[in-house]
């Protein structure tokens, strides 16, 4: 049961505040939350916090929050509730707000305060969840969202390729899908759009001898529909798609995942036979399918790193030669590749030789950062870095041999995005709509594939 | 009440589920539950709520229990983590007499939990990790084959990394120890000093089982010559030597040289302790201590000086020739110049002890140098699943058991006001007062003219003062048997407008509770309930600030009825 809900900007300014039960102190709760959050000792987690001491009416109040696109969405409760349920509710609220107001952010919220309060009124009553389904809510929400700039499909930059912002927001890219789901009849032309994203997150750990220690792929098929609710669609997946270790399909090695879970509204009648998913999506965002795959990746890893380290203990000169090979298919490319390599303490001065001019390397926070804006599949890049490491104080004759690399170097981690590529190999074959709009054109369908790194670590 | 769907049937069920009369009648309730379970049009919030309702239900027979479990099975496969965890909790509680069913459920929830642990939402990931730890307390091997899922990546926030390190520490076994240690070693050189230290402590924890490998890694870390690492490694060594005496030799060889890299109080204390207790095996121990003695004047931490005194006394016993001179200097300094009283007293104490004679000193100071049994004590045995089943999918695992205890304690003390009548443990899933009994309590005859004021606000201070200044107006003994839940009593008293000021925890002996009430004329009733260990009766003492016999009598009869009702419910 929720007592209050509020949204704070990243600087702690309250944007939205709603008290559902009137059993708690006033608005200063929001301020209290932010003070607590910023003053938290390092070893405590901010996700769930409790108030102690201070004035009596704040006593024993639990704050549970998520951070979403730079905003804090917070609920308070005085009961011992299910944390999973509350966090789910918060992220659902974030999605709903995004659906109604456009991409979440401080500006969007403060422009659409009326819509947000209206939405909250419907979603939560006296602190209990009523409904979060788009279907139900659209009957009650009257206010229209204010959009900062009108969206035009022909504005190519916004339909865009896979943008750079994914690393921050970790959501499917392209701002085309981030506008609100308008309910007005006026702009019919914009409504006939469907976005289907296959997004995979990749976590990999490679040992220093090059052997693969861990591969983990978390995949999602996300749908954002601007079509009227109730129109049926069919999504065809790769036919060789196998679930579990034992299933066999087709003649090739197939595409294998360990576990799949579907949204409850999905109809799986044709899934077994033809790998077709049928559903009638409500307007707005929906995660159709989630899947996981670990330790058993059939396609080669996108990147391999061949490091060689030379370390002269006497002079303190450290030379690191990094060769990065991209094993993607020739036509694919990786974007926004960044290599992060922690260095021993106190490294000063970096000299570099990079294999192409668009790359950049610098020292930041005790680590080497090597930026490669674009890496073509099948290509190989290299960088030679020389650093001076001050000699550790004390006698040099300490147990370690002189050729071993200094402690504190590595492991290297890579972050990148791979547009139009899925590491599991899963593809959407087709997206068919049963819905035929009475008027003009066919609906626009956008199917996108993307993989990005969650943690891609290579030990040195 | 959440929205449970749109159809009329559902609305009816909604009403039925909240109706105390139906809840009292088991057959009707069971019927309703069967229908609720079969409802297919619930959204995830409705499902979570229904699962919550069902926690109150006690199946009558084994058959019915498995019937319910089968009906609910689909909830375990739900896509929403909230529903899956709610179903898990319900299964664990329903199957409390069937450990194999519980284990089975925990195996099935492994997949969803691991998925949540690597979820994009950090908050969800954190909560899931806390629950993983909870499960590991009972089933240590449960996640061992998935250890790679708990490796940290550098972009994760601090609090998640710390949780993951804890999990890694708990799931280590013979097969994965090599890989886990290698991973942890990587964290020890992390840029964040806090995280590096947490990783070192974690290796220290693993060292209790896999001593040799861990001591080797820790020794290598000393070679880094970095302050924040060295100090933690030395502290880990100290704790380890006490628990696992077999590693003493290795530790003693690693120690020389570390004194240069330790600046903080904790690290110094650990090093000095090690030098004192195991000084006879470390060749340069007296010289290191001598440095400390030389600089004792500029030492800022009194605790370090105390440790130094004790260590030097011990070392003096094993290597008298090298230590005699500096011990004299240190004692002189501590007695004559030291300003901290505790240090001075300790100095004087050792001085007088030395005057008694060396044999006496040996008898007192040469205590055992290790105590391996302590390790067994510190590792709590595998806790049964039932001990935490009711805490699953609540805030308790997120805060941790001990922190939760302090939170609910200070809430309990605060919550005597009427605005927050329930204590949190109560709402979790504690045994509710069956509805029919509650009603009867409410229908108590408000005997005579006694009207108790509902919103009495009395601070504990004021209560104590008044209590001490008054004489006992009435004393009585009521029969009482066995255990009960203090929350239940508190609830029941609340219903008749008697506030609880303070109360011992459940099961404590002697058990005491202080109550207060006020009638509409302003007359205060202060009450003490006392339950001693041996006799099977509850002693009631009532004090009154105005002497009026008739109101006193009616107050006591109210109190008697409430206590009598609780006694009945219990039996």
Name of the CATH architecture of the domain at 460-569 in chain B: 2-Layer Sandwich
- Count every beta strand of chain A, where a strand is a DSSP E run of 2 or more residues: 25
End-to-end span of chain A in angstroms?
50 Å
Tell me the CATH topology of the domain at 460-569 in chain B. Answer: TATA-Binding Protein
Largest sheet of chain A: 9 strands, mixed
Q: Strand pairing plus helix content of chain A: what structural class?
A: mainly beta
Keywords (chain B): Golgi apparatus, Membrane, Protein transport, Transport
Subcellular location (chain B): Golgi apparatus, trans-Golgi network membrane
GO cellular component, one term (chain B): clathrin adaptor complex
GO biological process, one term (chain B): intracellular protein transport
Please characterize this protein's 3D structure.
The complex is a heterodimer of chains A (460) and B (571). Chain A has nine helices and 25 strands. With 460 residues, chain A is mainly beta. In chain A, the strands form six sheets. A nine-stranded mixed β-sheet of chain A has the order 13-15-9-8-25-23-18-21-20, covered by helices on one side. The radius of gyration of chain A is 26 Å and the shape is globular. Chain B contains 28 helices and five strands. Chain B has a domain at 460-569: TATA-Binding Protein. In chain B, strand 4 (524-531) and strand 5 form a beta hairpin. Chain B is an alpha+beta fold. Chain B has helices at residues 8-18, 20-24, 26-38, 44-54, 62-72, 81-94, 99-117, 122-138, 158-171, 177-188, 193-206, 211-222, 227-243, 248-254, 265-277, 285-294, 302-318, 320-336, 341-356, 358-365, 373-378, 396-399, 401-414, 424-428, 435-442, 460-469, 486-495, 549-570, and strands spanning 472-479, 499-503, 511-518, 524-531, 537-544. Chains A and B meet through strand 4, helix 2, strand 7, strand 8 and strand 9 of A and helix 4, helix 6, helix 7, helix 8 and helix 9 of B.
């Amino acid at each position: 049961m929720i007592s209050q809900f509020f949204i704070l900007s990243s600087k702690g300014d309250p944007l939205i505040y709603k008290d559902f039960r009137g059993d708690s102190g006033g608005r200063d709760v929001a301020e209290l939350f932010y003070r607590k959050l910023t003053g938290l000792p390092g070893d405590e987690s901010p996700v769930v916090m409790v108030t102690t001491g201070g004035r009596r009416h704040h006593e024993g109040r639990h704050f549970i929050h998520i951070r979403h696109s730079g905003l804090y969405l917070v609920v308070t409760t005085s009961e011992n509730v299910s944390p999973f349920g509350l966090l789910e509710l918060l992220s659902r609220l974030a999605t709903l707000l995004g659906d109604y107001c456009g991409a979440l952010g401080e500006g969007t919220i403060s422009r659409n305060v009326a819509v947000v309060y209206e939405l909250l009124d419907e979603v939560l009553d006296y602190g209990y969840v009523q409904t979060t389904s788009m279907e139900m809510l659209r009957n009650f929400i009257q206010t229209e969202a204010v959009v900062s700039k009108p969206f035009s499909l022909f504005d190519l930059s916004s339909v865009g390729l896979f943008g750079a912002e994914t690393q921050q927001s970790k959501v499917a890219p392209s701002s085309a899908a981030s506008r609100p789901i308008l309910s007005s009849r006026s702009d019919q032309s914009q409504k006939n759009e469907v976005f289907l994203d296959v997004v995979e997150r990749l976590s990999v750990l490679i040992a220093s001898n090059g052997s693969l220690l861990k591969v983990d792929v978390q995949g999602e098929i996300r749908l954002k529909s601007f079509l009227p609710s109730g129109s049926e669609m069919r999504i065809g997946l790769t036919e060789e798609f196998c679930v579990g270790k034992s299933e066999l399909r087709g003649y090739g090695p197939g595409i294998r995942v360990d576990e799949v879970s579907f949204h409850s509204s999905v109809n799986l009648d044709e899934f077994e036979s033809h790998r077709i998913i049928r559903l009638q999506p409500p307007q707005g965002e929906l995660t159709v399918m989630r899947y996981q795959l670990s330790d058993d990746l059939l396609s080669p890893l996108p990147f391999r790193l061949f490091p060689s380290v030379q370390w002269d203990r006497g002079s303190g000169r450290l030379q690191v030669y990094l060769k990065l090979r991209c094993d993607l298919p020739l036509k694919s490319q990786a974007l926004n590749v960044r290599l992060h390599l922690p260095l021993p303490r106190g490294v000063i001065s970096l000299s570099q030789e990079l294999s192409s001019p668009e790359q950049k390397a610098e020292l930041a926070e005790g680590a080497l950062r090597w930026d490669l804006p674009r890496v073509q599949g099948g290509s190989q890049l290299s960088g030679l870095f020389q650093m001076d490491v001050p000699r550790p104080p004390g006698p040099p004759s300490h147990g370690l041999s002189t050729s071993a690399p200094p402690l504190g170097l590595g492991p290297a981690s890579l972050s990148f995005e791979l547009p139009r590529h899925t590491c599991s190999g899963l593809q959407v074959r087709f997206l068919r709509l049963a819905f035929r709009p009475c008027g003009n054109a066919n609906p626009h369908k956008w199917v996108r594939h993307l993989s990005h790194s969650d943690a891609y670590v290579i030990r040195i | 009440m959440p929205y449970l769907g749109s159809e009329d049937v559902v609305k009816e069920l909604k009403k039925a589920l909240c109706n105390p009369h139906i809840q009292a009648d088991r057959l009707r309730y069971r019927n309703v539950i069967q229908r609720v379970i079969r409802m297919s049009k619930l959204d995830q919030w409705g499902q979570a709520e229904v699962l919550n309702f069902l926690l109150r239900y006690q199946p009558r027979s084994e058959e019915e229990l498995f019937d319910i479990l089968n009906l609910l099975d689909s909830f375990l496969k739900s896509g929403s983590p909230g529903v899956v965890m709610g179903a898990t909790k319900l299964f664990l509680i329903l199957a409390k007499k069937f450990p194999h069913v519980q284990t089975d459920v925990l195996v099935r929830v492994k997949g969803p939990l691991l998925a949540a642990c690597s979820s994009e939402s950090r908050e969800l990931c954190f909560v899931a990790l806390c629950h993983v730890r909870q499960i590991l307390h009972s089933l240590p091997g449960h996640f061992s084959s998935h250890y790679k899922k708990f490796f940290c990546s550098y972009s994760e926030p601090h609090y998640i990394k710390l949780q993951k390190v804890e999990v890694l520490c708990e799931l280590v076994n013979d097969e994965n120890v090599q890989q886990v240690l290698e991973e942890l070693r990587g964290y020890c050189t992390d840029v964040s000093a806090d995280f590096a230290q947490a990783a070192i402590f974690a290796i220290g924890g693993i060292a209790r089982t896999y001593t040799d490998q861990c001591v080797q890694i820790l020794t290598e870390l000393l070679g880094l010559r970095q302050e924040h690492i060295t100090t933690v490694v030395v502290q880990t060594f100290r704790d380890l030597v006490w628990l696992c005496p077999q590693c003493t030799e290795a530790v003693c060889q690693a120690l020389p040289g570390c004194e240069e890299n330790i600046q903080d109080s904790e690290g110094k204390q650990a090093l000095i302790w090690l030098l004192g207790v195991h000084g006879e095996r470390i060749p340069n121990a007296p010289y290191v201590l001598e440095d400390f003695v030389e600089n004792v004047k500029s030492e800022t931490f009194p605790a370090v000086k105390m440790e130094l005194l004790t260590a030097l006394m011990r070392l003096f016993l094993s290597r008298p020739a090298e230590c005699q001179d500096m011990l004299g200097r240190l004692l002189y300094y501590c007695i004559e110049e030291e300003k901290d009283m505790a240090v001075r007293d300790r100095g004087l104490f050792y001085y007088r002890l030395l005057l008694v004679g060396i044999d006496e000193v040996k008898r007192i100071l040469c205590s055992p140098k290790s105590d391996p049994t302590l390790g067994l004590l510190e590792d709590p045995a595998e806790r049964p699943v039932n001990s935490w089943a009711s805490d699953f999918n609540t805030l308790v695992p997120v805060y941790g058991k001990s922190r939760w205890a302090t939170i609910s304690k200070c809430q309990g003390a605060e919550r005597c006001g009427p605005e927050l009548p329930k204590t949190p443990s109560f709402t979790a899933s504690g045994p509710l007062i069956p509805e029919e009994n509650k009603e009867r309590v409410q229908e108590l005859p408000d005997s005579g003219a006694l009207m108790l004021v509902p919103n009495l606000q009395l601070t504990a201070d004021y209560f104590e003062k008044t209590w001490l200044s008054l004489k006992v107006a009435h004393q009585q003994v009521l029969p009482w048997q066995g255990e009960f839940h203090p929350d239940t009593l508190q609830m029941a008293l609340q219903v008749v407008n008697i506030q609880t000021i303070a109360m011992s925890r459940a099961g404590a002996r002697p058990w005491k509770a202080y109550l207060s009430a006020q009638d509409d004329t302003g007359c205060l009733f202060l009450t003490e309930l006392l339950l001693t260990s041996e006799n099977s009766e509850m002693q009631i003492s009532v004090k009154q600030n105005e002497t009026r016999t008739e109101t006193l009598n009616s107050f006591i009869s109210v109190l008697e009825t409430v206590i009598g009702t609780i006694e009945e419910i219990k039996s």
